[in-house]
Amino acid sequence: MRIDAHQHFWRMDRGDYGWLTGKDHPLIARDFLPDDLAPLLKAARIDRTVLVQAAPTEAETHFLLELADASPFIAGVVGWVDFEAPDAASRIARLAARPKLLGLRPMIQDLRDEEWMLRPAPARAFEAMQRGALCFDALVKPRHLPALAELLERHPDLAVVVDHGAKPDISHGEIELWSTCMRHIGRNSAACCKLSGLATEAGAGWSVAALKPYVDVLLESFGPSRLMWGSDWPVLNEAGTYDGWFAAAQELTRHLSQPDREAIFGGTAAKFYRLN
Question: What is the CATH number of the domain that holds 116?
Fold first, then answer.
């Protein structure tokens, strides 16, 4: 089974995508829904997808779950809950009862406090996620990686995947600090990582050659059994195309064995998210 482990849908009239403005994101500030993605999946022979939140509201999570219930190719949803709410644990428990909810993703990349995930309130939410058998998508940037490493030590049984390879600054060629942190996390935890979002971090005009040093670090740090491919569509449209990024990822992993490639393009995601 070939899986796109990270994609989004949104409907602009919902009004909860504060970051998504025509001024800042003219290429993607419109509705993107299942019918828009279906032909791209067919062309790439993608069987299932993991639909990930893009707004910091529970209302959007329920909207995505409704889409998942109506769209057979959506294997499940990674949603959002206010981790700092006094009743966060009970909210998480209620959402965990939804069969299509796979995990949760606080939008850590937008938070000023680089150690927010180590606060007491998020800790209680992480414990509630473990009780509900939910996965944690870590939407972080390189500056958050030391705190993420500590979080992984505190919660060794929490299923964690690092979104977008922790968003290295490929456009400026910054790799040393990021690679040191990612190797540390790969070596000292059971966390997985998504091979996604790299084209966006490289910027328009990216090339396979520009991405290769970063992909090589991810392969070295996590190995194919802990690495999963995702499109990050339609955010991807700001830097490229679905088929372009899919072909690039195929080329960047061409030297691997067939079983290893099958893990990256489906098997790892199926195991991590417990997909049937």
Answer: 3.20.20.140
Structure tokens at 59: 């209302």
> Is residue 122 helix, strand or coil?
helix
Handedness of CA 167, 30, 65, 114 (dihedral sign): positive
Enclosing domain of residue 73: 3-272
Cα separations (Å) of 190 from 91, 131, 250? Answer: 27, 18, 25
- Spell out the residues 6+ positions from residue 134 whose beta carbon is closer than 8 angstroms to its own: 92, 95, 96, 101, 102, 103, 104, 159
- How many domains is the chain built from? 1
Pick from 42, 7, 5: which is nearest to 263 by CA?
5
Quick: pLDDT tens for 59-98: 999 999 999 999 999 999 999 999 999 999 999 999 999 9
The string of pLDDT tens digits covering residues 190-247 is 999 999 999 999 999 999 999 999 999 999 999 999 999 999 999 999 999 999 999 9
Which helix (H) or strand (E) segment is 50 a member of?
strand 48-52
Peptide bond into 234 cis (omega under 30): yes
